[in-house]
Amino acid sequence: ATVRFTALLDNQLMDALESHMEVKPSQAPVVVGTSLVVAASPERPSVWPEGISLPEAVPGSGFIKIIAGVGSLPSVVSYAADIAQRPMDNGASLVAALLPAVSLRLYYDSKAQDISADLGLNRVASLFQAAVEALPAYTDSQGYDRK
Questions:
Q1: CA–CA distances in Å: residue 143 to residues 80, 90, 133, 140
Q2: 80 — phi, psi (to 5°)?
């Protein structure tokens, strides 16, 4: 944003200052999630009300995105998409970014070399392990990010 301050005397410009400043959102995005298991039954359909308490926010500043699916894959994919757009500026972000890919490993047979080779799941798992081991180097003794 550009901010201009002007000093006028009798409608005559006496002095002016123009400054450029970065305008950031009022808070980082918040992800609220829930999951549940519903048993399938042809005799009795399952109806499940679900309530989510949303965090306080500036009116009109956010949105709600609902993802529903079968199994854990939709939530892993959604989480991965959220993490992928975040800046990677510390160890916690690196670990968080690799977590969805490691989670996907559960969906594949570890002996299927062609799947592992195509998706690079073994490489991702080793990177995740290395990131977890390196995490202390990114934090101080209280667990805060070093910047």
A1: 24, 12, 14, 5
A2: -60, -40
Q: Which of 124, 130, 41, 28 is nearest to 76 (CA)?
A: 124
Residues 6+ apart with CB under 8 A from 10: none
Angle between helices 91-104 and 121-134 (to 10 degrees): 150
Q: pTM of the prediction?
A: 0.34
**Tokens 């308490």 belong to which residue?**
53
- What are the extents of the domains in the chain? 65-147
Convert the pLDDT of each residue in 95-140 to its tens digit. Answer: 776 776 666 666 655 555 444 455 566 666 676 677 767 766 666 5
